[in-house]
Design a protein that fits this description.
This protein has 383 residues and is of the alpha/beta class. The protein has helices at residues 9-12, 21-27, 45-50, 117-134, 183-193, 309-318, 334-341, 353-363, and strands at 31-34, 38-42, 57-62, 76-78, 96-98, 105-107, 135-145, 197-205, 222-229, 290-292, 324-327, 345-350. Helix 6 packs across helix 7. It starts with 8 loop residues before the first helix and ends in a 20-residue tail after the last helix. The structure holds S-adenosylmethionine.
């Protein structure tokens, strides 16, 4: 780590308890799979986080469901007649409902289906209060969020064939149709109100974003990635994510301060720890807050929200070696893959155990004998 980087927890003398994964796992009844360095839990993020010990996580990298954009198929029917297909229960984006034919109850606790933007943000704030408790004081949280439009928001029924992950019904937004809602920034401001320190608003620029049919506005080619911390001094190591210099300017003619010019050699002079093989060995410049990264490849038929390179950067800079990385909305565990590649431990939480099955393949792991089956008949999506 350079002298310019924020010093890590150990340099500050702040206690950073290093709980083993076993201790984590034994503390939580939600464990679905565990190995020495990977634990996957099934359940609502808030419930699972409540079961984890205080100050035990070094870094969080997560992409929660965006408000009203996707259905992750976590709704369940309970009670009623066993054979009923609940044909008249258009539960869509509802969190609760009842089948008029058999009386079965519908329950869905997935994030993103809240009736209003304010309720969605409130739920995220609750999860962030949990994160504040489990995070070490010097920990970092990287939050990826995309925006939503209020257009077509009043009971709009998705056409068929629509996107298979799109909800059939979308609740009313708090702005008139066609408004961009600014959900990432609304959330960031709310988290600031709760005491989080917003250190960066990284624009994740997607060069090959999905084309939009809209003809009266520009296509959206970016999402936000916020870096949030709990205190002014936190773990941050810029060196692993510096961009190497690829030009041909001699080392002696390159900037050695500031760290933002493309020709910057490093943050300090004279260069230390470098041999004389040339400028390619020099750490390079600060990557800045616009990251151009293609969207992630789908895994197991499910779209991933971000490409591997994104959590790799977050973890390399924001998690000490050997530290524990948490993703409370982990899906196919792209964050877990990045954590393993970088030698960090990983804890992933998702409501839908099907995603953990995909994650295991993704992580090159096989199932523990103790894992529950994902073939739970009550685990059915909306009709
Ligand atoms: C945008 S996806 C995350 C994708 C992930 N970054 C990946 O690499 O695949 C959001 C995930 O949050 C999960 N989810 C939704 N509501 C949840 C809740 N209340 N608690 C935990 N997970 C939830 C969904 O099942 C989905 O897998």
């Amino acid at each position: 780590m350079t002298r310019r980087a924020q010093r890590g927890p150990h340099e500050h003398g702040i206690a950073s308890p290093r709980l083993s994964m076993d201790e984590h796992a034994s503390a939580s009844p939600y464990v679905w799979h565990r190995t020495a360095d990977v634990t996957l839990c099934v359940g609502d993020a808030h419930d699972v986080l409540a079961s984890l010990p205080d100050v035990s996580v070094d870094c969080v990298v997560t992409s929660p469901p965006y408000w009203r954009l996707r259905d992750y198929g976590t709704g369940r029917w309970s009670g009623g007649e066993p054979g009923c297909l609940h044909p008249h229960a258009a539960v869509g984006m509802a969190t609760t409902g009842t089948c008029v034919d058999c009386g079965a109850g519908w329950d869905d606790v997935q994030l993103g289906r809240e009736p209003t933007a304010a309720e969605y943000i409130d739920r995220l704030r609750t999860v962030f209060a949990d994160l504040a408790r489990v995070l070490v004081p010097t920990g970092t949280v990287w939050l990826n969020l995309g925006d939503s439009y209020a257009a077509n928001s009043d009971g709009y029924r998705c056409g068929r064939p629509g996107h298979p992950g799109q909800p059939n019904y979308r609740p009313r937004a708090d702005r008139s149709d066609k408004n961009l809602l600014g959900m990432p920034w609304r959330t960031a401001f709310a988290l600031q109100d709760d005491g989080w320190i917003l250190r960066n608003a990284v624009v994740w620029h997607k060069p090959h974003a999905v084309p939009t049919p809209a003809r009266d506005r520009l296509a959206c080619h970016h999402e936000m990635l916020f870096l949030l911390v709990r205190q002014e001094r936190y773990y941050f190591d810029l060196d692993p994510i510096r961009q190497p210099y690829t030009g041909d300017r001699a080392l002696s003619r390159r900037a050695h301060r500031g760290g933002t010019k493309p020709t910057t050699a490093t943050g300090t002079w004279p260069l230390r720890g470098l041999d004389s093989t040339g400028p390619t060995r020099v750490p390079g410049r600060n990557p800045g807050d616009v990251w151009t990264l293609p969207t992630g490849a789908p895994h197991g038929g499910r779209p991933v929200s971000f490409p591997l390179e994104l959590p790799v950067r977050c973890i390399a800079a924001g998690c000490p070696p050997g530290g524990l990385v948490l993703d409370p909305f982990c899906g196919a565990s792209t964050t877990g893959l990045a954590a393993r590649q970088l030698g960090r431990r990983y804890l992933g939480i998702d409501l839908n155990p099907d995603f953990h099955g995909i994650a295991l393949a993704h992580l090159g792991l096989s199932k523990n004998a103790s894992e529950p089956s994902t073939e739970d008949p009550s685990h059915r999506g909306p009709p």
